[in-house]
Specification:
The structure is a homotetramer of 212-residue chains.
Chain A lengths: L2 H18 L14 H6 L2 H25 L7 H15 L2 H10 L6 H26 L12 H5 L2 H18 L3 H14 L7 H9 L9
């Protein structure tokens, strides 16, 4: 199986999960305080929506960057990718929970922890996929060096540490915890993968693998 | 019509059906017991979500593997594929039912049977598609032998037997029934189709059809 | 703009509209009569679901067959296609209405008429698209003869007559009306377009335009 | 990264956001006045649905026209595109709010302003994307002249002025405001981009950049 096949289904799941997030925003029902108040009171839902959308969008960008380095896809990799997609597809659920409970005094920490659990599942799936791919050179495209590819694994696993901090902070302040989750997304905007292949994919001129 | 056309629409339905499953998970409403209890009490919904997502994901993988062996698509095959997609697209419904009723003493067996009925419809559609394709060599790609292709039909139909067992067990224990449905998905992770073509598609080097 | 661009977005709308139909099926709430009764009582929703899914699926098949005859897409055609997609994307709404009201004595005819109105809008959009494409030979692929292409317009417009009959029957019996809508879908399973191009697309061997 | 990658995910978000709009239409519940009255009373929801669907559809058409002029996509452009998609994906929410509140005496102006805010966010994202792309010739395809490309920026920003007028009018009449939003969509049906490249993409014959 070529990566393009796998990417068609993955593209679908990423874009649908991101777009379904909007269903977590609810039309305020008339309550005597007016629509403007009703809309503004939902600010936590908007904030969580934005963080989840950006997170899924950046995961999608990185998914493509990663599979641009993959030559062929075997059954275990398909299955690991399916686990990643399962975690991504579930994101609208903790988003809805956190959006509704971010302002709750009693339960905001539970909601923020739950959000972190799903994000940690995503990070674990990313780490498992990259560990599996870089087990040997069999699945990688030719111009990526195996040591270079392996050396990027810590950046994949860094997400786990960040999310652990986010979940720890959740017991103190759920909004602060959401801010940390947002920063993880920003962190992964920066390229995580071997540079040479990146550039080759970006400008169309394949180069010799310099460092990976 | 070439298979790639049919696959674009099928990819869409598979990935949307899988991602829509998340709408079956509901934000617990404040009930005095706290959000953590509310979230944990929904474990049946999470379990059924995971089984349905993995099942649809594996059906998608096998859909591609199957249509990689198909040279051209005629109207009856299009229509059979549409019936398969109809059954796949309906999966979020029995998933929602079983997720809500798995813990119900009176109705869990009905919910688990209903889930099995939809899965059986999927398995019937798979069997019908493969029977139709292997009727003669007209629709198959050249390097697949017809007897080899036909010899894999029992593996397609095995799902029917498993689902029948699952529905039989549903009257005893719905969770056990769900476990059996999950095992069917795992069973179909293993390749069901003629090997030679698989390898050819995977590593790009077409081989002579050895056994099919 | 090439047709493939337009088809990517159209594929998306067709497959999402078809898959969203499942949200019209609701988990029966416990009401003392048991889940089995609750599920069976929803048979109208299942029937309408099946008719809508098959109708959208067949429209998708015919959309591809049609745009396989189109060489290039201009702005008016893009806009007409957008109107078709608008009508297709709205199908889950009359489906939900008819699914809920098919058994209602007072309102089933209104629901069945509303379903027919949306289907008529689809049929009008199809007719407008084909009329526009066959205005002159500018947008058609070369091996399709303009008179041959024009001669198929009545088959496009036949849907309008059928849907008018369906809406007329709606005042007598909504289920009978639904049956007529289902028959229109079956009618459009048969190829509506110039044959030569069809065969050429199907078996890969381009032929001389015989009749169009 | 090539534009085609980015377009696959964008196509997904555009088509899903457009198709999810249908979930803003609700089945009228029996209220003694009959289904026909119930359906007709929802006319504001239908009107807003149509405006939003057409707006998203035209944004999609223009998205393709724009990225047909782009040679390669870098990280900042990816991120700007993600912000556009975030705004597009949120459209079903103000659509639902305006559909429900368009007839409300007290709150229709708030709902119409909220709709304008999201549309303004879309227009800002479009402007940012085109400003970034035309910063220098690095990202543009070769046959587009940079001055020509830059000269079209005002047409991108015109949307901002229109939406400001629409939001201003919202305090007087929400339906009039909706009409203005609809006219913006119609305005963007006309080509906004350098013509030469357009024609080249449309009829397949690349021409010399005449004016841009």
């Amino acid at each position: 199986m070529t990566p393009s096949r796998l990417e068609a289904f993955s593209d679908g799941v990423f874009s649908i999960a991101a777009t379904l997030l909007v269903l977590d925003l609810h039309v305020p029902q008339p309550d005597g305080q007016g629509l403007a108040i009703g809309l503004l009171r939902q600010w936590p839902a908007y904030a969580v929506y934005a963080v989840s959308f950006i997170t899924i969008g950046i995961m999608w960008v990185n998914h493509h960057a990663l599979f641009a380095l993959v030559r062929s896809v075997d059954r275990p990799l398909l299955f690991l990718n399916l686990l990643l997609l399962l975690a991504v597809a579930v994101v609208p659920f903790p988003t809805a929970v956190l959006g509704q409970y971010l302002g709750s005094e009693a339960d905001s920490h539970v909601a923020a922890t739950g959000y972190g659990v799903v994000m940690t599942a995503c990070a674990l799936a990313w780490g498992a996929i990259w560990s599996y791919i870089t087990r040997d050179a069999r699945l990688l495209v030719e111009h990526v060096s195996l040591p270079g590819a392996r050396s990027t694994l810590p950046r994949f696993l860094a997400g786990l540490a960040f999310y652990a901090i986010g979940m720890g902070v959740a017991t103190l302040s759920a909004p602060l915890s959401l801010l940390i989750y947002a920063l993880v997304a920003v962190y992964y905007v920066l390229p995580t993968l071997p540079r040479s292949a990146h550039n080759a994919a970006a400008d169309g001129t394949p180069r010799a693998p310099t460092r990976g």
